[in-house]
Amino acid sequence: xxxxxxxxxxxxxxxxxxxxxxxxxxxxxxxxxxxxxxxxxxxxxxxxxxxxxxxxxxxxxxxxxxxxxxxxxxxxxxxxxxxxxxxxxxxxxxxxxxxxxxxxxxxxxxxxxxxxxxxxxxxxxxxxxxxxxxxxxxxxxxxxxxxxxxxxxxxxxxxxxxxxxxxxxxxxxxxxxxxxxxxxxxxxxxxxxxxxxxxxxxxxxxxxxxxxxxxxxxxxxxxxxxxxxxxxxxxxxxxxxxxxxxxxxxxxxxxxxxxxxxxxxxxxxxxxxxxxxxxxxxxxxxxxxxxxxxxxxxxxxxxxxxxxxxxxxxxxxxxxxxxxxxxxxxxxxxxxxxxxxxxxxxxxxxxxxxxxxxxxxxxxxxxxxxxxxxxxxxxxxxxxxxxxxxxxxxxxxx
Length: 398
Description:
The chain is mostly beta strands. It is built from two helices and 32 strands. The chain has four domains: 32-107, Lipocalin (Beta Barrel), CATH 2.40.128.20; 121-194, Beta Barrel (Lipocalin); 204-271, Beta Barrel (Lipocalin); 285-390, Lipocalin (Beta Barrel). The strands form four sheets. An eight-stranded antiparallel β-barrel has the order 1-2-3-4-5-6-7-8. It has an eight-stranded antiparallel β-barrel with strand order 9-10-11-12-13-14-15-16. An eight-stranded antiparallel β-barrel has the order 17-18-19-20-21-22-23-24. Mean pLDDT is 77; it is low at 1-25 and 274-280.
């Protein structure tokens, strides 16, 4: 009897296994990465729930959501506040709606894995230039880094320098005239002396583009829309490599103007001038946020309202928006007027000043004071005597 029951159980298990279609498993409708020119959404599925992050203007906003009947409903956090959103997917597009605003995102296609073949010995021989030193690798097994002499050996894509203390093993990648050394905490990009890639030095600096600031650093890194990439230039080809894939653009430069041609679309950039003397600074994280002023009057003759907001982003860009409206009665009838004003650019700050580089007004420096609102205690920025109060929840200045 026991044998028969065991055989019956085994038969049932076998039937269940063979009867299950492995291709009938429910597909993941929302997991993955979606982005447009303003923001990037990354989602990971756990059962029917999703976690992830929204990357927007240098900020990382945590996301929690749940899929129900083809709709993703969830929340994200920003400046200590929680906001709700809904999202639906059609094909490769994800439409995200929050507080009446709609964002259409395109699913990012993962770049194929790149298998780097072992570098031949001849590939590393030559003179290479880095940010702070010149490296010479000779075919006879000797090398100099700056003023120091070494011997070198190659094992696949790892080079070992010896002769000055403990041997140093450096994993690396080499692509054409660009040689990248991978230290545990950073990377060093070298360019073969005399190669076309040395023209990349003309890229170094900050540029203002159609969607914000782009920063090219001498170490071969670049910041675009708050995301970090590695870049290289060969002739008129600019390559950006980051966590979201590899992008190639045809590059044209003329003085302080630059353009990229990507998939037939042209993006224009203007080099950002250095801050005015005495106002050199950087991005001060405590100033990042949205700061507003508002005035409303209502009396027997009519109404008057004015608002102005400055949004300072962590990637060094800013947006300014203001609007004005008035209505009332005068002799002969009623009147009404309205206007608005918008501007964008880049910003830096010191403890006593903010310097903006605006599309409309160029470089300007404002006297900066940090005060707390007399009634609410909310922190304020006072620019040349004009008060702007935080639009988000922030602790008072100390």
